[in-house]
Design goal:
Elements lengths: L4 E8 L1 E2 L2 E9 L2 E5 L2 E3 L6 H13 L1 E15 L6 E14 L9 E7 L1 H5 L8 H11 L17 H8 L1
Parallel strand pairs: 1-7
Antiparallel strand pairs: 1-5, 2-3, 3-4, 3-8, 6-7
Length: 160
């Protein structure tokens, strides 16, 4: 059992009623997900979603808002994921860029396309993020705070 929580980011970006999605191979299955991935050491959540979107789709994302923060446990409760989803616009595309390992392709799909393939969605968070986006849920990016490293003593006195 994993006692930690995987911190991930996801991009929800829409163009003409279609959402940028990735088709990827995970544990031998082909699934559909938003451009998403794990937060890496030393990067902010905004930096992570920009990087993941570029690596998985070759699109340059400009994050504009947070659409939600989601906690999901796998059905067997062996893993927990804390996902921060960002709404944003894609500003440029590099069709020659090599996509991350495991990514089959990037697609622009409607909500109806996704609902018709519900069994292929990587997790329940995929549709929830889109539905929250379509419901107009937006939080300003400055609701996220990056706390700089401090010595243990400074951290304890600041937290108290």
């Amino acid at each position: 059992m994993n006692n930690g929580i995987d911190v991930t980011v996801a991009a929800v970006t829409e163009r003409a009623g279609r959402f940028l999605m990735v088709e990827e191979r995970v544990s031998g299955s082909t699934v559909i997900n938003q451009p998403a991935g794990h937060l890496e050491p030393g990067e902010s959540l905004v930096e992570a979603v920009i990087r993941e979107t570029l690596e998985e789709t070759a699109w340059a994302l400009e994050p504009e808002a947070v659409t939600g923060i989601y906690l999901w446990q796998t059905p067997d409760q062996s893993r927990s994921f804390l996902r921060v989803a960002f709404a944003g616009q894609c500003r440029g595309h590099d069709p020659d860029r090599h996509l991350d390992t495991g990514i089959i392709a990037a697609h622009w799909l409607t909500r109806e396309d996704l609902a018709g393939q519900a069994e292929r969605l990587r997790s329940p968070m995929v549709m929830r993020c889109i539905d929250d986006y379509l419901a107009g849920i937006r939080y300003p990016l400055d609701c996220l705070t990056q706390v700089d490293a401090a010595t243990p003593r400074q951290a304890l006195s600041a937290a108290g």
